[in-house]
Amino acid sequence: MKLNEEERALLAGEGGRARQWAIRHQIEVGKFFDAEDMVPVDQAHVMADPESLGEAGVRWLSDIAAMPESERRVRIPTITDPRGVDFAAYKRLHQTDDMASLEERAIRAFEAMGVLMTNTCINYQTILPPVRGEHVAFGDTGVVIYSNAVFGARSNFEGGPSAIAAGLTGRTPRYGYHLDRNRLGTKLFELRHQPKDFSEWGALGAVVGKRSGSYWSVPVITGIESAPSSDDLKHFGAALASFGSVAMFHMPGITPDAPTLADAFDGPPPPASTITSEDIASVYEGYAARGDKVDVVVFSAPQLSLIELEKVANLLDGRQVHAGTTLIAATSPEIKFAADRMGLTRRIEGAGGIVLSGVCFYQSYAREMAEANGWSRLMSNSAKLVNIIGGYGYKPTLATMERCVDSAVAGKVL
Amino acid sequence: MAQTLLCHPGIGPDVEGIALVASDDFSARYDLDRIKGVFSRPAHKLFGQDYRERILVLNNVKGGVASAWMLNEMASRDVKPAAFVFNRVNPILAQGAALAALSLVDRFEDGDVTQLIRNGERIRVRPSEGQVILLDRP
């Protein structure tokens, strides 16, 4: 890789040990993907929940945090993905003091590094959305795909260590979605069914993701009759990234990098793969469990916007969650403050639900929570969550937000 | 006697071990019980199989970014695969392998690596050379 004078100095240790580790890590990853050089980035976003970190990861962070201030501080605004423990609610969820302690140590380390604890996977809705052409180092698949596709920003999936490296050096290897040639469409999809709600947008993401099947695929979706909302595209992108590891898509006429179908491809478009209402229905059928007792209903993955929280509150007004069911809604700290101020938290919790701040369900020791609470059947309107959570021992069911709330009140899958 | 498969140069040290092969994708968060060291996702083709010190031969990487930390965490407890041999990986597995000092190769010249390597056979992974050697093949 070509390194400039500053990068060579970092490699020589002139920026301290943390930055020396960071540039070495970036060179190793960059060489693996044939990056020719580094590209400056002006934001980093770090996924580092305590379950993923473990004791080893927290020790690793703490070692950096113990270095002199000039060595350990990040050089660009660096923010965090959801945490694993909401200190105001963890005992209600039967998470343990050990989990909370590990979480506290991780937060202390991040703060010593100058990382801003935003604790959100909807930073593009709540903190600072990137702009078209801006190079960033974002570390949540839903954040990356939304930023690349909807804003036209440029990021690869940057896992926690690589996002920290980007924070420390202010750059990242130039490969993948930092390069024009990799952002062109590779597959064409034509919708014959218009998604009607968040779960259907997620189901559409699941269908496209399964048919795309690779980080290096760029699906192009046509046939959308009216512009989706930010929350629609949030669920679509999160599911697309989850089912297919996809990091970029085009919707000609909606997303900025390809105003027309011709702009989306390098040459004539390939034959289209059609997506029908039956394809969408089959996603739900794969998780169907009508009549089963439902243990936990979860609205999360991604964290809820203020608008989604209001919908949950509206659906719960005048009703009570069944005694044998737990209903959880997770959002970012900024949205939680707003929800508190606007009475949404009171309405949801008054109906027996729990509103969590700064966490996401699957990043919160999901397996241990299931064991401690006796949870098995999980219901959600998030296609991403039902895709992930099976590996943690849950039996997941996908449904609309309305059916999820109705089921939470009935105590069984409706 | 051995056959050699050529691939893109990878990450990590040379490793020798037994291949655990499936034409399926991979995510440490989605697919593994990392405490027990087994594949825990019922829909995965390796469901129930012990992955500890096996060389995982799989198709692609799916899902989220957690593997970047989880490989390091698994390595710290010795509940880790010996190496990763994939058709194509995403950045997360490369970043995770780099942090955990685990071996990783992908992009094979001769086609689908999940068809080229047999489940249970002994192989040597040489990331710096971009080679996987099938040790028991004439």
UniProtKB/TrEMBL annotation, chain A:
GO terms for molecular function: lyase activity. The keyword Lyase applies. It comes from the Bacteria. It comes from Ancylobacter mangrovi. Residues 1-406 form the Phosphomevalonate dehydratase large subunit-like domain. This is Aconitase X catalytic domain-containing protein. The lineage of its organism: Bacteria, Pseudomonadati, Pseudomonadota, Alphaproteobacteria, Hyphomicrobiales. It holds the Pfam family AcnX. Keywords: Iron, Lyase. InterPro entries: PMDh-L-like_dom.
From TrEMBL, chain B:
This is DUF126 domain-containing protein. Keywords: Lyase. It comes from the Bacteria. Residues 26-105 form the Phosphomevalonate dehydratase small subunit-like domain. GO terms for molecular function: lyase activity. Signal peptide: none annotated. Gene3D superfamilies: Phosphohistidine domain. It holds the Pfam family AcnX_swivel_put. InterPro entries: PMDh-S-like_dom.
